[in-house]
Write a structure and sequence with these properties.
This protein has 393 residues and is an alpha/beta fold. It has 2 domains: 6-258, 3-Layer(aba) Sandwich (Aspartate Aminotransferase, domain 2); 261-391, Aspartate Aminotransferase, domain 1 (Alpha-Beta Complex). The protein has 15 helices and 12 strands. The chain has a 7-stranded mixed beta sheet with strand order 1-7-6-5-4-2-3, with helices on both faces. A 5-stranded mixed beta sheet has the order 8-9-12-11-10. It binds pyridoxal-5'-phosphate. Residues 89-91, 115, 161, 186, 188, 208, 210, 220, 222, 334 line the site of pyridoxal-5'-phosphate (PLP).
């Protein structure tokens, strides 16, 4: 009899099919949450088959859980990868992916404005274990490529998430392959809809699914996708042992929220561009850091833009007064959800200098990061306008 194996039931039937078009043993419109730590076995042989790799039945949810597996398969398809793993946070994904490839004496090449907690992971954790970190101006492809020979890993973020610097992923990926350097890109800002690093030759893509993929400020989650060989390395070296596994309910939330990703991203893209160009024309804004406004080869890897970007205000504006005058736009450090948010770099600069990426690599205290949420662009602009007027000296 040619039956579909029981534990392949959560295979997607069509790569981009909505969730309810996918196989489910009971044709559930929305997949179940397998809220269990444990899976049971009928006999010795069934258990032995799992350990011997002859069966894919899950045994314990720190390793595999069917709801989490659905999300892993979904991101595999969206990124054009062969495999993926889900973690309990973006940082869990970053830490596991990096630790799977580096050891004492290895060198990592990264971008100088890398996400602040990735920077702290490099500085506070990896350096203790003898890993060397090179921070390079990622916009300078020649400098990035010159730093690659002898490195073990290039850790990229296109664009970086405070000053939105770009890297030329195609050129860096090509050079990294020649020098045997593993490449990873944090793709949280563009999402798989607007940038596909694997298609450009990058080895591994990382997502803070807490941002656009989750998209509703209701979950913290991380994902890593890439070739089977690279994900196998993460599986065999790190994944089950550091324990940062995504929980089934959190995976279910991300899966559900992915259903609206194209609609949300279209809004973030369009409203983000409208607000960025309004700010760019404002007399009290000296600089807008939005990739659409740059002339850099790294820009051409995007088919659309996220709605998160920064701008710098003139000396006439008191940053604290401006932030306090906002009404619709709230103050908050995360991004990618429905809320429109600001984070003033000035506040972040008060973190102790040795672990402050903004202080170390020169982010101006007049920089303000703006998350264009799901509000109408005209409402966000009206709020920025009244707050800039109120904060003028
Ligand atoms: C660009 C970027 N990458 C990674 C992360 C880490 O994600 P998480 O907060 O889920 O650990 C963040 C979080 O702010 C981020 O902004």
């Amino acid at each position: 009899m040619n039956e579909t194996p029981r534990f392949d039931a959560y295979r997607h039937t069509t790569p981009n099919a909505p969730m309810h078009h996918r196989a489910d043993p009971f044709d559930a419109a929305v997949p179940p949450i397998y809220q269990t730590s444990l899976f049971l076995f009928d006999n010795y042989k069934e258990l032995e088959d799992v350990f011997a790799g002859r069966s894919k039945k899950p045994i314990y949810s720190r390793g595999d859980n069917p709801t989490v597996r659905m999300l892993e398969r979904k991101i595999t398809e969206m990124e054009g990868a062969e495999e993926a793993r889900a973690f309990s946070s973006g940082m869990g994904a970053i830490a596991a992916a990096v630790l799977a490839f580096v050891g004492p004496g290895d060198r990592i090449v990264t971008v100088r404005h890398v996400y602040s907690d990735a920077f702290r992971f490099f500085e506070k954790v990896l350096k203790r274990f003898g890993v060397i970190i090179d921070y390079i101006d990622g916009t300078d492809s020649e400098a990035m490529i010159a730093a690659l020979p002898g490195a073990r890993l290039a850790y990229l973020e296109n664009p970086t998430s405070m000053v939105f610097e770009l890297q030329d992923l195609t050129a860096i990926a090509e050079a990294a392959r020649r020098h045997g350097v593993v490449t990873m890109v944090d793709n949280s800002w563009a999402t798989p809809l607007y940038q596909n690093p694997l298609a450009l030759g990058i080895d591994l893509v990382i997502h803070a699914a807490s941002k656009y993929l989750g998209g509703h400020s209701d979950t913290v989650a991380g994902l890593v996708a890439g070739s089977k060989a690279h994900i196998d390395q993460i599986n065999s070296e790190i994944y089950p042992y550091t324990g940062a596994k995504l929980a089934p309910f959190e995976a279910w939330l991300v899966l559900r929220n992915l259903e609206t990703l194209p609609f949300r991203m279209r809004h973030h893209h369009e409203a983000g561009l409208e607000v960025a160009s309004w700010l760019n024309a404002h007399g009290d804004v000296t600089h807008v850091m939005h990739p659409a406004l740059y002339d850099h080869p790294g820009k051409h890897t995007f088919s659309g833009f996220g709605g998160l970007f920064s701008f710098e205000v003139s000396n006439r504006i008191d940053v604290a007064d401006f932030v306090d005058a906002l009404r619709l736009i709230r103050i908050g450090v995360s991004w990618g959800g429905p809320e429109s948010l600001v984070v003033p770099a000035k506040a972040a600069l008060s973190i102790s200098p040795e672990t402050n990426v903004f202080a170390r690599f020169g982010v101006s205290d007049r920089t303000i990061r703006l998350n264009v949420g799901l509000h109408a662009a005209k409402d966000i602009i009206a709020d920025l306008d009244q707050a800039l007027s109120a904060a003028g000296r």
